[in-house]
Specification:
About 30% of the residues are buried. This protein has seven helices and no strands. The structure holds fe (ii) ion (FE2) (2 copies). The site of one fe (ii) ion has 6 residues, from helix 2, helix 3 and helix 4.
Length: about 190
């Protein structure tokens, strides 16, 4: 059973993101495209759940300091931009390596900022029960987006994870929003 407290859950996922970046760097030429795809899918699901569940919570908690959440959203958009450029580069080319290193720095700095500015605010303002409830919502959101689609046997949800990263995050986010009955769900 994984962590349910949203703060611990996201920190755990950041550890996994760091590991997946390392996996791409260390992979052999043949294994690299697959490792890269695993990273992209994990990131898409993680960032979509944050955009839909976590940042809105943080926006309320950080009401007087809403700039923090705006900055995080801007960083997530920058990462999407970098990823779509990366998707146009050939895996293993010099261009890919340079852009990949840039993306890794940006995403890890972004995760650090979440851990130092956003998550402590959530931890300070909510009790354990509430943090668990938000964590369950994150898990539910992520469960709607399977990370291993099977070609030829795709449910509509699995199809969400086919295609460029930007579209992936946005489609996952829309499904989550719809399922949670949030704004724009109708
Ligand atoms: Fe994020
Ligand atoms: Fe994150």
């Amino acid at each position: 059973m994984g962590e349910s407290n949203v703060v611990d859950l996201l920190i755990q996922q950041h550890v996994e993101i760091r590991r997946l970046f390392g996996e791409v760097r260390d992979a052999s030429a043949e294994q690299r495209p697959e490792a890269f795809e695993r990273l992209v899918r994990f990131l898409a699901v993680h960032e979509a759940a944050e955009e839909e569940v976590v940042h809105p919570e943080a926006r309320q908690v950080l009401a007087k300091d809403a700039g923090v959440v705006e900055a995080l959203l801007a960083e997530e958009n920058d990462a999407k931009q970098m990823l779509s450029e990366l998707e146009r580069a050939e895996v293993g080319s010099l261009d890919f390596d340079a852009k990949f290193a840039m993306l890794e720095r940006a995403v890890l700095a972004h995760a650090d900022r979440e851990e130092t500015e956003e998550l402590p605010a959530l931890r300070a303002e909510h009790d354990e029960l509430r943090l668990q409830a938000i964590g369950v919502a994150v898990k539910a959101a992520e469960a709607m987006a399977p990370t291993h689609p099977h070609p030829g046997l795709q449910t509509p949800a699995e199809n969400l994870l086919v295609g460029p990263f930007v579209g992936m995050v946005d489609r996952v986010r829309d499904v989550v929003r719809h399922a949670m009955g949030g704004p724009g769900s109708k």
